């Protein structure tokens, strides 16, 4: 029996989107864990964030000028102090750069086991059993640890929490721990990406077109579908060679290696050099009229329908969804 | 008359002195250059010079240019007599060639060959100024023009002098038909006898000045090849083609020239270059649009040597005077060295400069990755060492482990044949053929590492040493009679390069082994009913190691008709993968050599099968056919694909009901697209 | 100033992944071990720091198959020395279990800066750098793409994805989990490697011994539908619907 504590990562005073997924995960586990769901906000205004975090039962806030920007040492000190005080049975973090900093550190400082890269969690009989992604997501690992435990969740694994709009969580302000004064790390400035630059390795969703797309004009159709999906458009080598897309959008051995959550390969045959650039993708869907195309060996799902039928159909369906 | 003699002596000595001084200044760097042993086997060396110069062996490969050069060259040889005559009689009054026929057959030859030279010059001028072949791009047109003018001056003045002499009444006209005709024309033009006398003098001095001017001009001109070509050919390398020279680490050059890097032969190569551009014309990297012209590389080297001897050098040779991209573009196919009429050695220089870049750590990322993978796991593909023999997993029989058991044939499989899925199919086929023929063969499993051939050519001498020594140690512990490989690059390394470590093996290409098996009846094949095939000679099997015939006989034995491409045998056009290029980024390529080659095959009109005998060729041409979208017009087939074992010999352990179907079973293994 | 670079060998499936009989590990028959890619970057960054500041650099690793060669390569690349820690238990250690050994090595050497890779592909029970930070009581930062030294402190560039990054100024001593080095990793020629291959690598024992890993790994499994593609049938619209449903299931349908 115990509570679930969620670490909410914030940027510019707002919670990261993944926070809603963590809340969703916590809500689904709350009954098994047998307690309440608390959301911890470090360095941002808990009161202002409470409506966004209303799926939690309680929002904890620790405010201090030294916490407004993310500094690993400071935030880790606060987190471990809060966890020691509140003693949750399950502490949840998202496995981002911040989560990667904080979760292992927290685990040792509070003597708790840690299971990371979780996509599925279940609690029973005082144990957490979780499935994690391992070896670039090519395999799943199932682990088990006794509560109290720390778990770090992969973004995109859980659905967002749905809470009624009028729900108001309790707001608790916690005092910053004394250890903060001994922190010897300091935030020294931020850089933001230049406008317009494209870094495919950062894209979570990629729609890649291959030689099957045929010509430059047909790329426009693919671009629309990519936009509707929220995906970046990329090309295999023949597409770039033909000048239909610029070099920074080439996926493959002599282009860029990507491992997005979604890789939709359309008209790509799947030469080894191309597979090298994308076989680490989480969900690979391939569309190619040739049923023997090698891409199907690495794809999770495939279809042999004509891409010139599928792309417009996909575009239409996505547009319809958008409007509902 | 005495005044004339004195003037001539002054001019002569002055010109010879000036020319000599210029030659000395040019060739002085050779004195301080690194040594190289090229004084052995004089008989063979001389024979080579005679073949090259006397028979115009390589020059005639481009017939038009070969002919015009033969005309001019033979003209020069004959007209040497005219120069001897002119100077001899001027410097030593009373000297004449009359006793040995100076006015008879020599005169006739002079006249005829003067015309020959003029014809040759006309042909040359037409080619250079009208036709403008691509290989001349980057060559010095001004230099060429000056030479044409000088030669024309010398020859025409000689003819006019003889013609004028005839007009003055002296000179045997019967033996000088050309000069005689000109004399007649001069007469018609109204040249008087006194005018002709003056004309003789003018033309004589023009001739003298032309010759001396030419002499002074030569050291700074590509026409130095007149004097330097024969020595350059004489001092050529007589080492086997597939062996790169070994250099001590301090001899690796690329930085300052004077630092003991370039050998005197390297420098001589630079000076002997005639800028003919034949190397450029056959270079696959150049054809692909990469920044490599073998010609410009050599002239760049030459200019660097000259500038450096005058202490005018500011930047290093490699990645300075010669761009790194230029050096990395080379596939080491050796077409340039085969084509060069003066036997310049381009590839060892490129490799040496690459060695310099490697020691500096200046490598592009993809190449670096390949080399790191080789360092780590003995293969260039980033695959685990342990997976090397995984291609054997699905074979219906177990291949002998040559490390444990003695074998007759030790099969050195090679990187691509082991790891690349497109080639593994062929490797398995070859295994089945060998098994069907009852060959006692084995492989080294994961003790085998990349033979290092292309590692050496990339300039990573240290890594090559590691790989070679490893393989040699492994082989030393094995018992075998011969080594067989499907990979020409491994063939070259094992058969040629490893000798420097004292390891001598009898290595044969699988085409030779398969032919041997078929001709001895140990492998019975089922010839197909025809189909027209063309065969691509792999660089390291053909040009480097002389293996042209076995694959061709094999193709015919398998029942196919051979239709040769124009660039076949020694003139084969490289697929573009050698020399480390397959490990390099090919941005900047305007047309891949492999696509160029497929187009050449398609242009034959009736060819259905493009036959390859090398794993890299297989990969490159399969990709080329795909990216050109011509899969329905031409198919890439390996030699192993063509050889269809007769059903009775295939898998004798199989149940009899299977046998008629086996040819079809083989075919379904082929994946139609990659 | 002393820098320590912690290097680990991890299984390199080279694209092939098969699970061993007991279901708890990879089938290692066809698998090599190779230096963790991020540790490679950490070493390169450590070398760059050493070159710019004159610090001494020691490459640190736990004894095992192939570790000697890995440490010799580090020497060839320019490390001043190596430290190989005996693995008394002999078993494969998770990062959490190995952390006390590394912490002891770091204290033994008197390091001011400790660099290691931000993660390995098998660290499902937590990453080494933050573990070390906790054990040593030092500040730490992960996903760092560039470090510079500035009088008794470092400035580290921490990346958050989407091109957003922050600079942190951290007083020494510090542990960093490196993502990429400031420059591409430089190639080390075969000649230099061969020279280093003659170096003998000593092993030392440290106290305390390894810790217990509190999480139990139950099994490895292959995700459904990843051995070959599940082929969807129907007309274009039906397939489009199915694809959208697939993506929605995975939470990929948000913009």
Describe the overall structure.
The complex is a heterotrimer of chains A (324), B (674) and C (255). Chain A has 324 residues and is an alpha/beta fold. Helix content of chain A is 29%, strand content 28%. Chain A folds into two domains: 4-182, Rossmann fold, CATH 3.40.50.620; 200-323, Rossmann fold, CATH 3.40.50. With 674 residues, chain B is mostly helical. Chain B has three domains: 2-233; 239-360, Fumarate Reductase Iron-sulfur Protein, Chain B, domain 2 (Orthogonal Bundle), CATH 1.10.1060; 368-668, no CATH class. Chain B contains 28 helices and nine strands. Chain B has helices spanning 2-27, 29-32, 42-54, 63-91, 105-131, 141-167, 177-189, 193-217, 225-234, 264-272, 278-282, 284-287, 294-309, 324-328, 335-339, 346-360, 365-377, 415-419, 421-436, 453-458, 461-476, 488-495, 510-519, 549-557, 593-603, 615-628, 639-642, 662-668; strands at residues 400-401, 409-411, 441-443, 482-485, 507-509, 532-535, 561-562, 609-612, 635-638. In chain B, strands 1-3-2-4-5 form a five-stranded parallel beta sheet. Chain C has 255 residues and is α/β, with parallel strands linked by helices. Chain C has one domain: HUPs (Rossmann fold), CATH 3.40.50. In chain C, 29% of the residues lie in helices and 28% in strands. Chain C has helices at residues 37-53, 67-77, 95-109, 128-136, 190-196, 236-249; strands spanning 2-6, 9-12, 32-35, 56-62, 81-85, 113-117, 140-149, 153-161, 164-171, 174-178, 203-204, 216-221, 230-231. In chain C, strands 9-8-7-10-6-1-4-5-11 form a nine-stranded mixed beta sheet, sandwiched between helices. A two-stranded antiparallel sheet of chain C has the order 2-3. The radius of gyration of chain C is 21 Å and the shape is globular. Strand 9 (139-146) of chain A pairs antiparallel with strand 12 (216-221) of chain C.
